[in-house]
Design brief:
heterodimer; A: 196 residues; alpha/beta; Rossmann fold; 7-stranded mixed beta sheet; 7 strands; elongated; B: 376 residues; 2 domains; 6-stranded mixed beta sheet; 22% strand
């Protein structure tokens, strides 16, 4: 009887150790979001993705992530995403000085010019390689907001952080996943929260 | 009363004549279209070999390269226009852009020099440090009133592409690599001139080349042969001419897949200049509208390139990252987009087996895979 209990305890110990170990191996990842419960998202047919505000040291990071985001959003087939060239034309015609952080008034004017149901603005807070001792890995941290242009209110926000140094990277110096893969993962996670 | 009737008749006859004559002369108002026939010529083509277009961003021995190409292509039965005739024509028409040919230049080429076709060669990569690397794109464009691409091929070679046992197959001499490149292009051209179909080994079945995200609108007809104008991509890469290089890649892969008719890029470029279209952040719907009004095409293909990276020496990796979109004529909507990125060592684990050493080869495979989703 004692022997049976001991084996059962040992099994529990092994399983729980394994879970703790595997969780420890996972790289940094977080996701928060807000969904306006009163908003009918099916009414949004067309969306403009504004240039992302880039708070990182990588000069092209904002444009890269915006492109991945816009393409991924369009590829869901749920909404039509206005091409970036048309968005740029709308920004110029609306006279928006800082398109990454437009005012509600500017968004209203812009939406009237290019005729969209919603505008997405985003901020990139981290993009690139992070180092800790001898280990390094790629990380991305972004947040996006969707503004519905009829009522000019925020109906959806999401932020995600992906990548970072895992235990695996620390032990074996694997160097993490390529930046593009980390970006895709973060964008996919963010978009998953739009269509819940 | 009689005089009023006769003068009315006279005016109507004059108007008819004016309308008829203006209809005959107004070639500039006609829409430019592409034909999908690029069958092998029946006679020996008199070809003008234009000076090489350097897209590598580095110094290249262009004239030496051109002479080698001429001698290689002559062996395949291409009749080459004399250099002094070509030079006189270039000086007379003040031709400075040699990466394409517009309608007027194509017409003048035919009627002033008698050339049947123009060979346009772009050097995308030239690196003579060991192991050497080279990437070339050649296309044969017909002259006359409607310039169309007859044949197009490209290659990217590195001296260490296949080193073999004890590195016996390693190419360290750039001239040897150049000869190999020209030989391959000559064979491809020879097959076209002989009426055969030139085909290249493709690895597009490999998953790593597939685009990462794709959107294809249901309004696109399956198995329909679309006529496409490819505009230069917006380059956000460190490589200066990456936008033109990737656009050429799209043109070539469309020609190879034979599921599209493609407008000669020189014609599209000339239209962009004429209409003063500057695409600061990619193509807008207004730009597309303007192009559709002049081009008889179903789709306009544009995009952005973020990385087009080659490397020198043995350590490093090629990197390509682009996104593309197609705007359709009737709906004026984006009907297809794709986003693709790759690195030369992706999926390489043992002894560099499967490594891709030039961005050109990787881009070709990625573009071919992306176009499969458009043409499906």
């Amino acid at each position: 009887m004692i022997r049976v209990i001991k084996v059962a305890n040992l099994k529990k110990l092994v399983v729980s150790s394994l879970i703790v170990f595997l969780l420890g191996c996972a790289p940094g990842s977080s996701l928060t979001y807000y969904h306006d419960p009163q908003m009918d998202f099916a009414a949004i047919r067309s969306v403009a993705v504004m240039p992302f505000e880039n708070l990182t040291r990588e000069p092209m990071a904002g444009e890269r992530v915006r492109d991945v985001f816009a393409n991924s959003l369009l590829s869901t087939g749920a909404v039509y995403v206005i091409p970036s060239g048309e968005v740029s034309r709308g920004i110029a015609r609306a006279g928006i000085l800082n398109p990454a952080v437009p005012s509600m008034e500017e968004i209203g004017k812009f939406a009237g010019i290019i005729r969209v149901d919603a505008v997405i603005i985003g901020t990139l807070t981290e993009y690139g390689e992070v180092r800790s001792g001898s280990a390094s890995a790629n990380v991305i941290s972004m947040n996006v907001q969707m503004i519905e242009v009829q009522a000019l209110r925020i109906v959806w926000t999401a932020s995600a952080t992906k990548g970072g140094i895992s235990i695996w990277d620390r032990l074996f110096g694997a160097g993490g996943k390529p930046m593009n893969d980390v970006t895709m993962k973060a964008v996919t996670d963010v978009l998953d929260k739009l269509f819940i | 009363m009689f005089s009023t009737n006769s003068s009315f008749k006279l005016v109507s006859i004059l108007l008819t004549i004016i309308i008829y004559l203006s209809g005959c002369s107004a070639t500039n108002n006609q829409k430019i279209s592409a034909t999908d026939k690029h069958a092998a010529p029946e006679k020996k083509l008199l070809t003008a070999v234009l000076p090489l277009h350097n897209l590598s961003g580095t110094p290249v021995p262009l004239e030496d390269l051109r002479q080698r190409i001429i001698s290689g292509f002559k062996k395949q039965g291409l009749n080459i226009l004399a250099d002094h005739v070509l030079e006189r024509f270039i000086v007379k028409h003040r031709i400075r852009y040699v990466g394409g040919i517009d309608e007027i230049t194509a017409r003048d080429f035919r009627y002033e020099t008698g050339a049947d076709a123009v060979l346009i060669t772009s050097v995308e990569l030239y690196n003579d440090n060991p192991p050497p690397k080279i990437a070339l794109t050649c296309r044969l464009v017909s002259t006359g009133n409607n310039p169309e691409i007859l044949w197009m091929d490209s290659l990217g070679l590195a001296g260490d592409d296949s080193v073999g046992i004890l590195q016996l197959s390693l190419i360290e001499d750039p001239r040897q690599l150049l000869e190999k490149a020209i030989r391959q292009l000559s064979i491809s051209l020879g097959e076209y001139l002989a009426g055969g179909s030139y085909s290249k080994d493709s690895q597009r079945g490999i998953i790593k080349f597939w685009p990462k995200t794709v959107y294809r609108s249901p309004i696109l007809e399956p198995e329909w042969k679309y006529t496409v104008a490819v505009v230069p991509f917006l380059s956000l890469s460190e490589k200066r001419y990456a936008g033109e290089i990737i656009a050429l890649n799209f043109v070539e892969q469309m020609m190879n897949q034979r599921k599209f008719s493609v407008i000669e890029p020189g014609v599209v470029r000339q239209l962009l200049l004429q209409m003063r279209i500057i695409m600061d952040d990619g193509i807008s719907l207004a730009d597309a509208h303007a192009l559709f009004s002049k081009l008889n095409v179903d789709l306009i293909l544009a995009g952005k390139i973020f990385d087009y990276q080659d490397y020198q020496g043995t350590s490093g990796k090629a990197k390509v990252d682009f996104s593309a979109l197609a705007i359709e004529r009737q709906s004026r909507e984006v009907v297809w987009t794709c986003q693709s990125h790759n690195e030369g060592d992706h999926g390489v684990f043992f002894f560099d087996w499967g490594q891709i050493n030039t961005a050109h080869v990787m881009a070709s495979e990625m573009v071919a895979s992306a176009l499969e989703t458009l043409a499906e």
